[in-house]
Structure prediction request, 385 residues.
Amino acid sequence: MSVITNIEDLRVLAQKRVPRMFYDYADSGSWTESTYRANESDFQKIKLRQRVAVNMEGRTTRSTMIGQAVAMPVAIAPVGLTGMQHADGEILAARAAKKFGIPFTLSTMSICSIEDVSKGTDGHPFWFQLYMMKDRDFIERLIERAKAANCSALVITLDLQILGQRHKDLKNGLSAPPKLTIPNMINIATKPRWALGMLGTSRREFGNIVGHVKGVENMSSLSAWTAQQFDPALNWGDVEWIKKRWGGKIILKGIQDVEDAKLAVNSGADALIVSNHGGRQLDGADSSINSLPAIVAAVGKQIEVHMDGGIRSGQDVLKARALGAQAVYIGRAMAYGLGAMGEAGVSKALQIIRNELDITMAFCGHTDINTVDRSILLPGTYPTA
Prediction:
């Protein structure tokens, strides 16, 4: 194996090691994938101002997210089916995040359950991402389980009432566990490391759902569950309903529009995430980094603004901070690391991003991430409000 120097190296290795349907699930967008690609490419258009002869000693990337101290302003995003990128994937990613000192967010659609992750990290607090479903009794019990597991924030995803058109998933026949069709078996046979890991764990289905929903004892298809249970009638009243039952810190994920950002403030949430679901929902929507400045300008003094989508380097983290994001989330960068090398790969991804963030910040004349603003960017190269 060659030396791993950046997130792209981890992506290439993950593509070799993870079965096609699960690699494609993580590394794809909806429909034409134009928004998915723009999330990444729009970062590249933003140019940095290099400064010299500045004392670069004593640098720090330490910051806070909703009042919680973090080693860098980055959290692991909720990613469905993480435990299909690598056996026990959510537990391994949560352990890596705990050791590094950043938040880990567990998806409702995880393979390892809330209880699995809590036990696997010795009760260390993590964040839980909630999808609103029609079965309100199940949602209430899910919230109680998150409380029991010492989760310190609830991330409510607002942009997945219905599922975007994800063509690769349809073509691959995505399911968890995978259906044993001849093409799937042939593909899995070429991924022996992954297959051995999966044989060694009992966690192969949606751990938060199987055995916790009346009448549901196994999950053959993500899209069937989504069509049946995700609630297209979701509204701001539901956010209030969740808030009352949770009683703790709440982050709203999926805000792309200034009007929705204002409604997020009115909901009493602690933070919002500027996000287009990694380009997996509305194809043709603007990139997250392009949407960020207007939302920061409108509500940044009233609510903590975070963002996700397209973060593949520490430079991207720095650019997002410069444009007003308090913090960012990484989903694919984590999934690539996990698929490539398990827990060590997630740790490697985090180290790569912090190293790039630290060095780039210094070249731009700053030693503290909390002093960074848009003065580090070249005028005319970045989106404005």
